[in-house]
UniProtKB/TrEMBL annotation:
It comes from the Bacteria. PANTHER family: UNCHARACTERIZED PROTEIN YJBQ-RELATED, UPF0047 PROTEIN C4A8.02C. InterPro entries: UPF0047_YjbQ-like, YjbQ-like_sf. It comes from Mucilaginibacter phyllosphaerae. This is Secondary thiamine-phosphate synthase enzyme. Belongs to the UPF0047 family.
Length: 140
């Protein structure tokens, strides 16, 4: 069994859904050493999230942002946690809905993503700052 782990510090991104597949691959140069295994990408934040989805058409990412803004609106008077602004609690809720990690099978030394799949960093804050990801790959 081989295990590799790297910390990837992503520079601040604007609010929205960003494909980061290449950044993840570049951070894990040992990936070709694993023929069969798992790669986990974990974000160390509570107001941004990760998911896997369509990687070709940018309108998908725009529609994701539109949907989540409708589903979890800002300025709801019932939110109690709003110390950091109108996007504070909605960002936490959106992150909870999507999750803090994704797992991808490794097959023949490569991430076994589907043809149209990419890893998204979902930034739910207007000014979220840099984001840290821990990428762990293990297998044989």
């Amino acid at each position: 069994m081989k295990i590799f782990q790297h910390l990837l510090s992503m520079p601040q991104k604007r609010r929205g859904f960003h494909i980061i597949t290449y950044e993840v691959l570049n951070a894990m140069p040992e990936l070709p050493q694993i023929q069969t295994g798992i790669c986990q990408v974990f974000i160390q934040h509570t107001s941004a999230s990760l998911t896997i989805n369509e990687n070709a058409d940018p309108t998908v990412r725009q529609d994701f942002e539109m949907y989540f803004n409708k589903a979890v609106p800002e300025n709801d008077p019932e939110y109690r946690h709003d110390d950091e602004g109108a996007d504070d609690m909605p960002a936490h809720l959106k992150a909870a809905m999507l999750g803090c990690s994704v797992q991808i099978p490794i097959r023949n030394g490569r991430l076994a993503l589907g043809t149209w799949q990419g890893i998204y960093l979902c930034e739910h804050r207007n000014h979220g700052g840099s984001r840290n990801l821990i990428i762990t790959a293990w297998g044989q």
